[in-house]
Write a structure and sequence with these properties.
It is a single chain. By secondary structure, the chain is an alpha/beta fold. The protein has a single domain (73-366), classed as Rossmann fold, CATH 3.40.50.1820. 45% of the residues lie in helices and 14% in strands. It contains twelve helices and eight strands. The chain has helices spanning 10-65, 69-75, 119-125, 133-136, 157-168, 190-205, 220-235, 251-256, 270-280, 287-290, 311-323, 354-366, and strands at residues 98-106, 109-116, 143-147, 172-176, 213-218, 241-245, 298-303, 332-337. The chain has an eight-stranded mixed beta sheet with strand order 1-2-4-3-5-6-7-8, sandwiched between helices.
Amino acid sequence: MDTPNFKPDSKKGKRKSKEGKNDAASKGTFLRYFQENAPNFLFTAKITTLTLFLIYIGVPIFVRSNPWILPRVVFANLLRWPPFVNLSSPADFGLVNARNFYLDVEDNVRIGSWHVLPKSILVERGHIPAEKFEDELSNGKRVFLYLHGNSGTRGSHHRVQLYKLLASLDFHVVTIDYRGYGDSSGVPTEEGVVKDAYFIYKWLKQRIGNTKIFLWGHSLGTGVTTKLAKVLCNEGDLPAGIVLESPFNNMKDAATYHPFSLPFRMLPWFDWIFLKSLGDQGIFFKSDESILSVTPHIMILHAEDDLIVPFDLGQKLYHKAKATRTHKTKNVEFVAFKGDLGYGHKLIYQAPEIGDLIRQFIQKCENPD
């Protein structure tokens, strides 16, 4: 029997040999690369580990052991932009018919304030001396008391642009820097900033005669505005109407969904470390509870692309207020701005329709039927 004559496939063998050599070369190249860059890998690993430790261990421990830091984060009153400005001169901010003044709320608390006159006064009578501004408050033109959000001052750009808008619509505009903000003395707390707002409201009431006061709060200022409105309504001293721009329902939810909390939100101890500590510092701003006592007409403005106070929180506040309106209260309305308009958290004043919205709001407040 003949033995089969198998001929080796020389090409296949050569190919396998070549592939083996290539694999070996690749492994050798990788090993050499790893050996050469090992210090860099180790450094990167150390930095990554340290960063994760600081974020997920260091920061929570620091916050829980130093709860005083949270009010500074919430109020952010030390973040002042633009810096190095003279708040005693509203003209430096482009407010041509405005004056600066100060009010002593209590011992060691003096708050800086601005009063911007309606545009028609400037057009009809020109420059008004600062000492005559208070007299103008009783001229029958409506007053907006503006209560700003956290960080910055009464001179922050987006706030100044809103004052100009309201003045152009022929309203008086009065605004303050809460205690600890701008050139105001003191340290901000929830009760303290509401007290400042209450003080300026009562100061205005003593000077306006039959003129009507409307409240406008933005961001954190909506928490101040809603709580102030609750106090005033309980006293029977109702504001004429309330505008809440970019509001939240309560501080617990606002803190939970703020972008700064994103790295910590999934931690099992997030509530205990951050939210409970906020409560321990007396920071609640429960607008969804306060609004139940607010009887005047309310207009809520919120942009869908708000990254600081999520749109959903404004809707939650609206639905809470809407569900509790009775025949003894006026209406609440929600005005949404599409996300592709780019108004975000601060730029709703740029909306072309905002003037008409304000005029319609005033009409609804004064003629609800």
